[in-house]
Amino acid sequence: MKMILIGFMGAGKTSVAKVLGKKLKLEVIDMDDLALKQSKRKSINEIFEKDGEAKFRKIEFEVANDISGRDNVIIATGGGVVVNDSLMNKLKLNGLTVYLKNNFDKINEYVQIKKIRPPLFQNIESARKLFNFREPLYTKYADKIIETDNKSIEDVTVEIINNIK
Ligand code: S3P
């Protein structure tokens, strides 16, 4: 089983991946962690600040290439993977892509209480535009859509497991 979790920033991909990994006894791969390691920077925000978004996307593509052939894994993606069609096609190969779908206001609430905001979430209105642009892309690449509004990480995880049985 290779499961790829997609969705907007703050949708819970990383947290859900960790719990799913434990429950299904599968390794969890976090693409942002791998991109950060490869960048030699201290944070994703620092990559965006010092190297720019294009450089981050290049690293993200290399990471996707490296892991696309893996099996028995849960892959937590970064929210921007869906803007690159060839990346998505590689990543999706022999896998099940699950879209964690949340509404923008819920995502915004969650992001606002975090100490560090993602680089593309510095301004609410531009983040909302990005969300509206990407929403159809998440839907396009999804094999399954799980609505996460007002659900706990545990609830979402159980729903995914019940869905893949
Ligand atoms: C991004 C989302 C981030 C991270 C980077 C770019 C995006 O990951 O990859 O900041 O373009 O939506 P999360 O979705 O895990 O926050």
Task: Describe what this molecule looks like in 3D.
This protein is an alpha/beta fold and 165 residues long. The chain has eight helices and five strands; from the N terminus they run βαβαααβαβααβα. α4 (53-67) packs parallel to α5. The protein starts with a strand and ends with a helix. The protein binds shikimate-3-phosphate. Shikimate-3-phosphate binds at residues 9, 13-14, 32, 44, 78-80, 118-120.
Report the count of strand segments: 5
Largest sheet: 5 strands, parallel
**Quaternary state of the chains:** single chain
Strand content: 5-15%
Alpha-beta classification: alpha/beta
Radius of gyration: 15 Å
Order of helices and strands: EHEHHHEHEHHEH
Strand order across the largest sheet: 2-3-1-4-5
Q: Which residue ranges are poorly predicted, with pLDDT under 50 across at least 5 consecutive positions?
A: none
Q: How far from one another are the termini?
A: 12 Å
Shape: globular
Helical stretch tally: 8
